Amino acid sequence: MIEETDQRPAVGPVTRLLEQKKERKPQFHHYPDYFYAGFWIRFFAYLVDLACISAINGILLGLPANLFGLTKNDELFSIYGLLTLAIYLAYFVLLTKLNNGQTIGKMIFGIRVVCFTEEELSWQTVLVRECACRFILRGSVFMLGYLVTIFTPNKQHIGDYFSDTSVVTLNLLAAREDFTQG
């Protein structure tokens, strides 16, 4: 004998998942794969940013340290180490937020950060991507998280996944705008 139950069919959870997809936030900034900036261009932009941060550290921290004969200890839990970390993170957070997703290195190489769920980058997104994730990814072992960029379709590293962002090439965006308007 077959026993009747009051349970819903197995299709029920699938239906709920489809309904949740409809309720998701609007999607912004989705482009073809070739619009996203690859590992090497992002790496060279990062090197330019590191040179800028080094110059800022030299002016703000190195000059006073040399004038007053203070020691520069690069350990994280020293005053000098904490200040260099603060400058490093502040550089990326402030420039990314205030320059529409671009640091000086990104400006030079013509790339910028875009978010898939927001029209403009919010403070929350920038703080997650540029502060929390950069702090974690700056460790020697964790830097491998940047290599994920090579293998993902939207060229996202680990920090991009957490903040739902990626980096695009501005020349291709400009060409697309000219093509769609013309």
UniProtKB/TrEMBL annotation:
InterPro entries on file: Pra-immunoreactive, RDD
Keyword Electron transport (UniProt): no
A GO cellular component annotation in the UniProt record: plasma membrane
Entry-linked Pfam families: RDD
UniProt entry keywords in alphabetical sequence: Cell membrane, Membrane, Transmembrane, Transmembrane helix
Bilayer topology: Multi-pass membrane protein
Cell membrane found in the keyword field: yes
Places the protein is found: Cell membrane
Membrane-crossing residue ranges in chain numbering: 34-56, 76-96
Residue stretches making up the RDD domain: 36-163
Protein name: RDD domain-containing protein
Naturally occurring in which organism (per UniProt): Enterococcus avium ATCC 14025
